[in-house]
Amino acid sequence: MNQPKQAHSSGRAASPGRLYGGLLILLQTLFLPGLVLGGASHDYSVTVLEDLDHVEVEARLDAEDMRLSAPRGRLRRLEHFAACEAGRVSGVGDSLRVIGGCVRYRAFIRPSKQTLSSYRRPPTFAGHESWLWLPMLRGDDVVRLRLTVPSGTHAVVPWRLVGDGRYELRASPGSGDAIAWFGPATTRQIVVLDAKLSLTLLPGEKGGPLNLFVVKPWLEEAAGLVGSVGGRFPNSHVQVLVEPGESAFFGDSPVPFGHVIRSGEEVVRFFVKPQATTKALREDWTAVHEFAHLLLPYVRDDQKWISEGFASYYQNVLLARGGIYSEREAWQRLVRSFAQADKSTRPTSPNDAHMRSFWDVRMLIYWSGAAIALMGDVELRRVSNGEESLDTVLSKLASCCLPSARVWDGRELFTKLDELSGHGVFMPLYDKHANAPGMPPYQSLLEALGVKPKDKSVNLDGTAPLSQIREAIMRERKTPPVARGVIR
Ligand SMILES: [Zn+2]
């Protein structure tokens, strides 16, 4: 889905017509509280056919003349389209012009082989971006969907469930390929503080089924650690999808791959080795890293150092707080990663890293951002005498702004963090390091924290000036946010 456009003023003086419109809205607000002045509302009926290869869609639109598009859809993949009653529907480029307010179409939903990555092979269906033809969604616009699937078929779609077979879809950053799945699946809830995340385990092509009794407690603990940052999970409607996965490329990791998709509702997706043990999963950082991405809104794709950096910082901090890493191990991992990123030949700045091959600069992308997150966290704790921290400011960010339907800019995010904390900490860091080549200089900070690299390990110095801040960052939470190992 395209990025929703922000409303902007034209800068012209108010015309009489505009004044009249404003007065009308004021009167309606004062005297007609029942009248909803929100965004557009469109009603879709989606039927998955028995062959599981096609959907039939009826879209009743909010306006008489609208253009619909699907970001990855092609008109040639529509087997049929027509107006519902009176009206006319025509294909214009790769969009549909609907005159009369309603269109019916039938679409093929199996992904073409060429578009499948190694993790997108059948029987996963093409995401809704390929077959759900929508008007541009802005602000409060909503698409209300009624979904019908063949009996015995489970539906996984990135839409918000609001009732039996009824969903809502709103504007989203449109990052990643949404997942659609129609078939057998195991579903449960992950309870994190007051949030209930929906968990779906999908069958895989090979490797056998996943063990719910191993996978669920692992995700529950990881989501709980991320929820402990702000006292609540940043998005109570997130969907968690787990598929069996093997990958020689990712070596022995019990979780070969994980990622966050923000096209429709936020989805966190993991590939897990079916034979992975409870111990191996607990010691793996992937789940905490992926859930930690939800602590921030989606930041521009060319500023990955922010989202990857903050998630990489928290993966170490939270595994230490959860007692899975010792304080020393967490610092050791951070120091080792910083040093590896520092070895980049021909270093680029964090903001320019997107112009280089990802594999050449990936360490710099992840760990420059993590170093900046650490710098901000320490400085905020220092200037506020421990009243504020990265945790407290992200808690406020979650309250005001998450989940966010749009794409943020790094400068905008850092400005917001400073506004929320009341301390000018993050923007000065952005100005100093975002456009400077290489890793931000982190050595003097580590020294002040009392983290002293020694051979391949680190020593922690309790007499260092910022050693109390160092201890506070990694300190274990008193009450674990979720009970471990409980299957609901
Ligand atoms: Zn990541």
Query: How much strand content do the residues show?
Result: 15-25%
What do we call the CATH homologous superfamily of the largest domain?
Neutral Protease Domain 2
The largest sheet, given as strand count, sense and whether it forms a barrel, is: 7 strands, mixed
Q: Mean pLDDT, as a whole number?
A: 87
Present the secondary structure layout.
Elements: H1 16-31, E1 41-48, E2 54-60, E3 65-68, E4 78-83, E5 88-92, E6 95-99, E7 102-108, H2 128-131, E8 142-148, E9 154-156, E10 160-163, E11 166-169, E12 181-183, E13 186-192, E14 195-201, H3 212-230, E15 239-244, E16 257-262, E17 266-272, H4 278-282, H5 286-292, H6 304-321, H7 327-342, H8 358-383, H9 390-401, H10 410-421, H11 426-433, H12 443-449, E18 451-454, E19 457-460, H13 467-474
Parallel strand pairs: 1-8, 14-15, 15-17
Antiparallel strand pairs: 1-2, 2-7, 3-6, 4-7, 5-6, 8-11, 9-12, 10-11, 13-14, 16-17, 18-19
Helix pairs in contact: 3-5, 5-6, 6-7, 6-8, 7-8, 9-10
The protein binds zinc ion.
Residues 289, 293, 308, 311 line the site of zinc ion (ZN).
